Every structure is written in structure tokens, then in C-alpha cells.
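Hi Y.,

Following your request, here is the sequence exactly as I used it, all 242 residues.
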Amino acid sequence: MIADMAPEVFFQLHTDLPREGPGEAADVAWAASVAGLPDTARVLDAASGPGGDIGALLRAAPLGHVTATDLHAPFIEAARRQFSDNPRVTLLVGDMLQPQGPFDLIWCAGAVYFVGIEAALAAWRGRLAPGGHIAFSEPCFFTDAPSDGAIGFWHGEGGRVGTKTDIIARVAQAGYRVRATRRVSDTGWECYYRPMEARIARLRTRASPALQAVLNAAEVEITAWRQHREETGYVLLVVAPE
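Below is the corresponding structure, written out as C-alpha cells. Let me know if you'd prefer a different format.
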């Protein structure tokens, strides 16, 4: 699920999708429960995409505030169409590793992988309020002997994907403790892929050759995940500084 497409055609496919990675509202509710998130919590949605998790984060902290940030300005614009009138939401174009803080919860769905667990946890340590937590999802193999198909699903990056044991060890090396883990469910993946399949169908009739190739690659990815979902996916972790 690692994007290796040309940016312009990648975003042609991803424009107007409700979310930019696997997940569901139940993941947010679970993480908030593990973290003991107060109703008045200050929350960062790091690499928020178009804001697919903002509603669930608002429900997790009903008297709190959500700051959502993403480097891709059109994603933030899409989120503004939903949340611009909500005084409990701040939407910013910017680097997820340089938030103002402090935050009671930093939530990051799928994006820590691109900068590395160690770099993200180091950058966010000083942005956490006392007692604060970080919740993030990370590519994971659920077997010690993944098939070639499961490794290939990660678009040539399979060598960088570890097991849950590997990921927990990296968190510990970064000076954090793991409070709990949860596998991102098949429902969470379908919440991402089914809208993408609908968009692929809409784009087919007017797609350029370059976009057709991107749509084909996306369909291959979807099929590969469904074939290998028992072996690989995302693990969601809630962690706190030692």
C-alpha cells in the first residue's frame, strides 16, 4: 500500500476519497479508551488526509479540540469543506513532525512509516502534554514467514515491514512503552478500498493512458490485500513515553 505512483496521477485517483488509508471510527474509540483520553483533550491528527478520522476524534474528546495537519494542501481543503464551521477543529497545511502542542493524544493513521518510528516518536515527545499518548498504525506482517505475495503487496518496500514483535522493539528503543495493540480490521481496510473502487469505476471512461495505468495498479493492490490479508496489514499501537 506504499504509493509509488507519479504524484499528479496518484492524486487524480485519491481526490475526493473519504480517507487516505485503512481505518474506522472504532479504532479511534479504542485508542482513546486505552489512553484514558479526557473529554477536554487536545488532539493532533497528524497527516490527516482529507479528515476521515476527525469526526471520530471529536467524539472521543467531546469537549476538546482537534488540530489536523497534512502537507498536501488539497487534503486540508477537503477537510475544510466538512469542518470549517466547527470551532473545535483547526486545519493546517504543514509538517506533521512540527506541531505546536502540547497534545493529550497524537493520532497518526498510517503515516509514521514514511518518516520512521524512531523519528516520529522523537519529534513528538516534546509535543505531548503530561500523561499524553501517541496512537499510530504501522505496516505489519502477522506471520514470521510471509509469502512472496504478502511481501510484494508493499510495492517493493516489504523488507522494511516488520512483525508486531519487531515494531514493539523499535518503540522501546525510542524510549516509549506500548500500552496496547490492535490489528486494523478488514472493515477498516474496506472503508478505504471500497470508495477507491467506486472512484476507479468513475474515472475509467475518461482516463488518460497514464491514469489507466494507475487505476490498474490500484486494482492489483486491492486484490493483493484481499488475497493476503491474513498475513499482512496494519497494527495500531497506543504508546507513551517512559
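The longest strand covers residues 128-141.

Thanks again,
Q.
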